[in-house]
Amino acid sequence: MKHVSEKLAECYGDDVTVCTTNSFFLPESSLFKKIKPAYEVLNGVHVYRLPFNRWHYPFIKNANKALIKLTGRRLPPYITRLPYILDSPAIKRMMNRFEADVIMATTISYDFCNYPLWRNKTHRPKPFVLYGAIHLHKKITDYNDPALIKARACDCYISNTLYEKNEMIAYGVSPGKIINIGTGIDIPALACEHKEVLAFKKKHNITEDDIIVGFVGRLVKGKGVGILLDALRLLQRHSSNIKLLLGGGTTDYVPIIKKAIKEENMPIILIEDFEESLKPVIYNAMDIFVLPSQSESFGVVFLEAWACKKPVIGTRMGAIASLVTEGEDGLLFTGGDATDLKEKVLVLVQNKTMRDALGSAGYQKVLNNYTWPVIVKKYRESYELAIQNFKMEHAC
To answer: What is the pTM of this model?
Structure first.
């Protein structure tokens, strides 16, 4: 959204205001670090960082632990889910009062995405675009699911993949309000000099014979890091020159990774909280990129790896299988199956020609579909569609 907002201001002269949280970390995270200032203008975009309620997070966490210890049961999902709805009265007040032609919001679980359900009670309802980013790894069995209600109520729904678009149509979202976009990247920003990669490899004791399997993302079990560790254990039986490069933000799962490095002597290069400037070096130091997550709405890291002409491996599931074309620009494995992941990695480890071909095809896919000029144009079209649909509905 940072890129989309700035490009709309730069390329189209649009007046763009972003309203977000004041935390450096994800709003549902137990970690909190306040970002200052509360308001500033960045590259032509007005940015407001507003507070949100999080006082109840430790109570829910501790109560859940106590209940499990006493009874073996967990708190009901409607309670444990509260940190994930992002309760911010300040954001909702701004949506109500701000004079905008259109409002766009993400992600669908957050409370402010309920805007189309209460906007008619405000002094001036506005057209609403929803970028759902729904993780459709599991079928939604209830058509009255809150996420689906929001998706059906908005004026334009942005899907990440054709898989998501078709699923949302099946769930009752009007085809006339869905635009399939995905996300974009800046290919030149992921380039780096070869000497930087060599210096990185020297620093981390990576030799010319080593094959680097890489992951970039949140260092949490839910992103598949645990499966990646299991696959590495299996890979070590086949080759001693395979190393795992993990790059991402610090989480409460990192101690488990460090324990595996220390106690099992696993060949893992762990890069925590790296600067954005190091990202191109990390990707270019890899031979193979892997995202083993079983829950994704898209997977921008695939685009970043492709921008560096790296072959990718992802989970054979909905959105990922819709983005990665198996055998053409990447490989897919059965989610949660460390043995299958190991086999797919070995296929690429043993075939440099295939690695180069898959990486080149992925690069071309990004060039054709996921550069920022292409993406921002589609986003602006989604705003125009929302305004059109809103006017048609309110004219009736």
So the answer is: 0.81
